[in-house]
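Weekly structure sync, notes
Attendees: PL (lead), two postdocs, one rotation student
Agenda item 3: pending single-chain targets
PL asked that the sequence for the first pending target be pasted directly into the notes so everyone works from the same version. It is reproduced below exactly as submitted, 247 residues in total.
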Amino acid sequence: MYLRVSLGFIILLIPTALWNHDIFLFLNTIHYPILDYIFGVTSGLADYLVTLLFVFLVMLFHLRLGLAALVTYILAGASNQILKHIFDMPRPPALFENIHILGEPLYHLSFPSGHATSSGALACLALHFWQDKPKQAWAVFILFVFVAYGRIYGGVHFPIDVLVGFTMGAAIMGWIEHVSKQWNLKIWEQNEWSWKLPGLILVFLATIIGTGHQIQPSTAQPLALVLPIAALILLMQAWKKRLLRES
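Predicted structure, written out during the meeting:
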């Protein structure tokens, strides 16, 4: 399954690389007020602190996958920044006028897209987290495909930036998840801090996001009200189950 998905993205790289600007200009012309709101908000689901919030939330329910996601977050983020500074590609507003932009226009460090890299990692994570619930897993996967596409819709990335970023994030997550099966976590899983520490970090992240963090893009700021509350509710449910199990 994962091989077929990866192969599909790799095949798309060829026409995308050849007609990168043309594809961007065509897709960027397709915009409506309702889509502005949808993509403007959902694009924030791949913000770096929001992604980290998801990582520690997963860790509460599935320690190995959560740790694999954390390693992916570090490796994919570092790889993304290295490639950005190596290529230093201009973003669409630096090359074209009168394009459709959501939030603040950005001009530099276009390739690859950081939001798309996070989206790819989270999409792959969803397939592993809900592997026994395929409908739920693929629904979340598709959601993060749209999150990544929102960077084209919002005029801040070219298709090649998004496609390479998404593929890179998914590939690193898939690789780290495979490697994590060899990790010996039994001692840590038996320690009460294996769930208390991620919970405390989750509270810290929710507090930062809810009290002033500027989610990127700026159109996604409503998430700063919703996500911290949702995360804390899930945290309380997870802690309640843990305490009942240990009592």
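Discussion points:
- Residues 32-222 form a domain with the Vanadium-containing Chloroperoxidase; domain 1 fold (CATH 1.20.144).
- The CA atoms of residues 81 and 109 lie 9 Å apart.
Action: rotation student to compare against the earlier draft before next sync.
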